[in-house]
Each structure stands twice: as structure tokens, then as C-alpha cells.
Specification:
The chain is mainly beta. The protein has one domain: Sandwich (Immunoglobulin-like). About 5% of the residues lie in helices and about 45% in strands. The chain has 1 helix and 13 strands. Strands 5-13-12-8-9 form a 5-stranded mixed β-sheet, with no helix packed on it. Strand 8 and strand 9 form a beta hairpin. It is globular and about 45 Å long.
């Protein structure tokens, strides 16, 4: 894996990844494998898979001030994937109400510099992004959604629900 600086603007688009159907040969060679490579409209992104981990899963607002977000971008294809960014921002994190409206954005509290960069992900390797976002706007006893995406590549998007308690 090789990574160099860069990021993007805060565009929003609906997720468009669809699971890839495995061919008969793949099913014969790996009959119990359920892992599917996502398919994106942008051919440069094919083979990339996202995984999102939120810690803690249930947030005690009296104890937790920052929500830890770990995004893993894995290249499951057989070719290297290059992502280019016009700024030093790679990812955007949004906390949303369960109805979908945005509560807070990670970029609101971070300086974004016009510093182009490139990320190269070799086959079967991954890049991890570990960030935190403040929980001060959350209210107890409600379900929220953490959404993480790449502003330059809006198809690379993942969401996860979590619960906030007093």
C-alpha cells in the first residue's frame, strides 16, 4: 500500500454500489464464500470495498465526548487502484438523525488545505482512516446514523446506525 496527501469537497449523492454476482467458476472454487466485490458506475472504483467500525456502538453521552470512526477501504480487485484528491481531505463524516437530515459534519471542525494528493491501493491491500467526531450535538435515547464517504468519489459511501443513551 502507498499513500500520499489530498482530499475533496462536500458533495452528497445516494449510494450506488450494487453487489456483484459471482460467476459459476467462482462459486465452484469457493462455494462457501459470501464476499462480493461491489460494482460502481465509475470503473476506476471497481473492486473497492468499504468497512465501517464505530466505537463504542452504544454511546453513553455522560461518558463519551468523541465517537471513534474507523473506515477501511480494501482493494479486492487484481489491479492497483489510484484515487486522486484536490485537497488534503480524504473522507467526510456526517452524523445524521435517523430520518436522514444532517446533524453535524466532521469537516466543520477541520481545516481543509488546497493540497492535491494521490492514494494508490495495491490488489488485496487496504487503507485505514481513523478519525473522531464530537458527540455534543447528540441527544439521549435516540438512534443516529454515521455516514462516511469520499467527497471526490461519492459512490464510495457507507452508513451505520448507533444508539445514544444518557
Amino acid at each position: 500500500m502507498f499513500a500520499i496527501g489530498g482530499g475533496a469537497s462536500g458533495q452528497e449523492a445516494a449510494p450506488t454500489a450494487t453487489p456483484h454476482r459471482r460467476g459459476w467458476l467462482g462459486r465452484m472454487l469457493h462455494p462457501f464464500s459470501s464476499e462480493r466485490i461491489p460494482q460502481y458506475k465509475d470503473p476506476r472504483l471497481r473492486g473497492l470495498a468499504l468497512d465501517l467500525q464505530i466505537t463504542p456502538q452504544t454511546i453513553k453521552l455522560s461518558e463519551v465526548r468523541q465517537l471513534r470512526i474507523k473506515l477501511t477501504l480494501t482493494n479486492q480487485s487484481k489491479r492497483p487502484v489510484t484515487l486522486e484528491f484536490p485537497t488534503n481531505q480524504r473522507i467526510e463524516i456526517c452524523l445524521r438523525y435517523s430520518a436522514g437530515e444532517i446533524l453535524t459534519k466532521w469537516s466543520d471542525n477541520h481545516a481543509i488545505a488546497e493540497k492535491p494528493g494521490t492514494v494508490l491501493i495495491n490488489p488485496q491491500e487496504h487503507v485505514e482512516y481513523n478519525e473522531t467526531i464530537a458527540t455534543r450535538d447528540l441527544t439521549p435515547n435516540k438512534v443516529f446514523i454515521a455516514e462516511v464517504f469520499f467527497p471526490k468519489y461519492p459512490e464510495l459511501r457507507i452508513q451505520q446506525k448507533f444508539l445514544a443513551v444518557p
